[in-house]
Automatic annotation (TrEMBL), chains A, B:
The keyword Cell inner membrane does not apply. GO terms for molecular function: coproporphyrinogen oxidase activity. It is an enzyme of class 1 (oxidoreductase). Coiled coil: none annotated. Belongs to the aerobic coproporphyrinogen-III oxidase family. Pathway: Porphyrin-containing compound metabolism; protoporphyrin-IX biosynthesis; protoporphyrinogen-IX from coproporphyrinogen-III (O2 route): step 1/1. This is coproporphyrinogen oxidase. One of its GO terms (cellular component) is cytoplasm. Keywords: Heme biosynthesis, Oxidoreductase, Porphyrin biosynthesis. The keyword Oxidoreductase applies. Its EC number is 1.3.3.3. GO terms for biological process: protoporphyrinogen IX biosynthetic process. InterPro entries: Coprogen_oxidase_aer, Coprogen_oxidase_aer_sf.
Length: 301, 301
């Protein structure tokens, strides 16, 4: 790996993530119909900064964050040893988005694509995953198939590997549940950086095709108070995952990124109810069952 | 330290925490006036178990948990190395309580007293701390003075040491704020176990005196929607602390304690609003200022 390649990839990655951010925000504003993203540009004292875009209190999106950032400088020693690179010098650039829709029939979605350079090592990471409150099998299947198509264009091994990695990563050990119905997740693709960059661009560009049709067809579903309650309880699991397990959140907080940009991922309204379990046989109970036993969604679940 | 002393302390600690749990639950039911604690006795497959008591949807207490547990067995190797004892054999017994009142003028409160034995080492730990949403200086002062009195009875050094340790421990680095106005926190008292056990009993017995008068005088304060909103936003910080930093929560989840008992500490209804800052000059803004600069509450703040 030549230094010049890595430097060129950093520049192209930054341009790609910013352009993707523009396209996704524009499409989400069209989906929402009323609310607009506000933009906060921020600078990191240690080096770098970001462009945070958040939309709140929309008609369809209760809270949405679509952020890009490039941060670089020196890692704290202890934290540097926990990453896969070498030494304390680092550069990290990427896009990260989380959408929390108002209607519990529309799933929450997360996507993140990043390029990290630490010492002599550089790697891409990221993925996209879907977190429904009410499970429509066809939605999970659609989301997986769009990502599988993006994977298959590059390497037939990608989808099965990254699908399994996604189920493994988005797992709440203390709940014995996955966060949602998964998608794709990758952090060690192999090391052919140009090939990987081509892949993550296709994967990032697939996001709108994967998610918008689901949001469009569920956003006007009638909602009961009990369904809203269930959505808020399940959002609690989202918070638990992000604050206890998520490496991106820990990376952001440890590298002293901008706290409000990192924690934009947390849902707008959340409940914790002691020992709440849905009645057997209900759609709520079926969701929990499925989250305990990942399905092969690309094949139809 | 003789083995027989430690075994006797374990027995007495278990009896003490259960009796304190009974007294505190009875007093809280009287405070609330309407709701009752439900009890869940649970058994830990690896060894031990607990008595979880939770009250929800009360008139005064929106959610309250008062738990005792004794867990023992083998720690996972990696986790064992992060504790102060030696080896993987462990025993841990204690009481842990968190009260989330409905009225934002009544502070949230947490207390925890525990005895841990790992390999050849045994130690007490714990403390109590107050988390107001609206800050009444006299409440913070009262809470500190009651705990100071319990400390002073045993050692003049205790209160200043444990007050400072509390401010240091309940600190959200990513927010540059303490969780609340503190109290006392201790984990390394010195090693005279009988003396320490006498102290933690007095400290635990001080809890009701420290908290009940505050709850009684604030529980009927009129509340606006904006104040409720602020309470829910601040409860978000409580969640962030417990899931990102709290050693008790991590200990519980890592030792495969009962998840619902560990996470009873999480507030019932919570909000995350992007980059929310109170207007300068408001009571909300003053709270945040105080949380950035710990005060000497026992002397009146």
């Amino acid at each position: 790996m030549k230094t010049v390649d890595v430097e060129s990839l950093k520049e192209r990655m930054e341009a790609f993530t910013r352009s993707l951010q523009d396209d996704i925000c524009a499409a989400l504003e069209r989906l929402d119909g009323t609310a607009r993203f506000r933009e906060d540009a921020w600078i990191r004292p240690g080096g770098g900064g970001g462009r945070t875009r958040v939309l709140e209190e929309g008609a369809v999106l209760e809270k949405a964050g679509v952020n890009t950032s490039v941060v670089f400088g020196e890692l704290e020693e202890q934290f540097a040893q926990r990453l896969q690179g070498e030494g304390r010098r680092f550069w990290a650039g990427g896009i990260s988005l989380v959408l929390h829709p108002r209607n519990p029939h529309v799933p929450t979605v997360h996507a993140n694509y990043r390029f990290i350079h630490q010492g002599g090592k550089a790697w891409f990471g990221g993925g996209a995953d879907l977190t429904p409150y009410y499970l429509y099998d066809e939605d999970a299947t659609h989301f997986h198939r769009v990502h599988k198509a993006a994977c298959d264009k590059h390497d037939a091994d990608y989808y099965p590997r990254f699908k399994a990695a996604c189920d493994g990563y988005f797992h709440l050990r203390h709940r014995e549940e996955t966060r949602g119905v998964g998608g794709v997740f990758f952090e060690n693709m192999g090391g052919e950086l140009e090939k990987e960059f081509a892949f993550i661009q296709d994967c990032g560009r697939a996001f709108l095709d994967a998610y918008l049709p689901i949001a469009e067809r569920r956003k006007d579903t009638p909602v009961t108070q009990a369904q809203r309650f269930w959505q808020e309880v399940r959002r609690g699991r989202y918070v638990e995952f992000n604050l206890v397990y998520d490496r991106g959140t820990v990376f952001g907080l440890e590298t002293r990124g901008r706290t409000e940009s990192i924690l934009m991922s947390l849902p707008p309204q959340v409940r914790w109810r002691y020992d709440h379990h849905p009645e057997p046989g209900t759609p709520e109970a079926r969701l929990v069952e499925v989250l305990r036993q990942p399905r092969d969604w690309a094949r139809g679940g």
